[in-house]
Amino acid sequence: MSGGRALLGGRRRGSNVWLRSIIVAFVVLFVWLQLMFASLGDTSDAGGGDYNDSMAAILSMVPSVLHKFLTPRPRNSTGALNGSAAALAAMAALRGGLNLSEIKRNIAQYNYQQTVYNEDIFGPLQNDSVVIVIQIHDRITYLRHLIVSLAQARDISTALIVFSHDYYDEEINSLVQSIDFCKVIQIFYPYSIQTHPHEYPGEDPNDCPRDIQREEALVRKCNNALYPDLYGHYREAKFTQTKHHWWWKANRVFNQLDVTHNHSGLVVFLEEDHYVAEDFIHVLKLMERTCQTSCRHCNILSLGTYLKTYNYYGKVEVTPWMSSKHNMGMAFNRTTWMKIVGCADYFCKYDDYNWDWSLQQVSQNCLKQKLHAMVVRGPRVFHIGECGVHHKKKNCESTAVISKVQKVLKVAKRHLYPDYLTQTYVTPMKKTKLRKGNGGWGDRRDHMLCMGMTLR
Description:
It contains 14 helices and 12 strands. By secondary structure, the protein is an alpha/beta fold. The N terminus is likely disordered.
């Protein structure tokens, strides 16, 4: 019996040791997990702190009444998407919860109804009012800042802003429709790669790959085998879309929209990643009057500049229009447009996927009187886009660029709203020779689509 009790006591002691070991191990594991979660929490907080600091910096740049345009709603995905057409369609489903049929139906409805928001508040469009046309893809962060800059512009209440979309997104629509400082209308490019993900003008599965040799393309009998560009490459939908969209929107604004088809005043062309100075309308009107009195051959006004140094003393340059220098924040009227659209063949069939290079082709090889620009030495339109179709950077935040722009404008503050402009005539050192196009536009289908959108 005593041996049995001794054995039982030994078992109990072993059991107690084993139990204590489990408890100790559990406590150690619990403490370790708490430390890990605390560490993760610190990392998360640090990231959140960076975000909050960045957002605070952005909000501090603008009046509090305009913060509503900078405050994003929660969304399933962030950042701009410049991938395949199928990915674009998938993103549409994520961001808007709509399928392609619904998106197409909504686009058709917007284009048919032509609703002008806030017209009841600001009245009908006048002939001397400025029409601002903004080409939009999906970079909503940049668009928010552009809207904020427009909201602070003097006389913006007299303008009409036309938002021209090639990507349907409910969040962007809500942002645009929240604008309360001027008249607004939305138009939607109907031949986008979002709405045609598996067919032309999107990416048809039977299209020739970009880098395939023409001989192999002919053997494969892919759709556009006969028509590579001048460098031997086949079309890429995401690059061709921008030129198509630019041409479509210009035709629609000047010839199709009820609100603008009789408008004879200035039309300013901006993009979603631009930013305007508060006196840009004032300067634009001043440039228009100066052209009428002392520069009648000036037919394009350019509010942007790529100069490294700025001069805000009311100086403008008069020079032959050049696509690489005068394509930002440019404005022209119906008279100039009618001359441009009369040269549609030169625009639509020129083997270059850039709208501005194609416009250079029109100017130099079709127009009787070439395009001449009046360009401000102190820019009123800035480019804030760090990322897009052609540019990919690790950091696509716009805060630093906008901060730089604001510093430039702060320094120039006392020189804004000039009373008059001083003209300088600039003659190019040598005769401008149009270089060979950049390609990307050899496909005959692109030529036909472009010509089909032309309204004369």
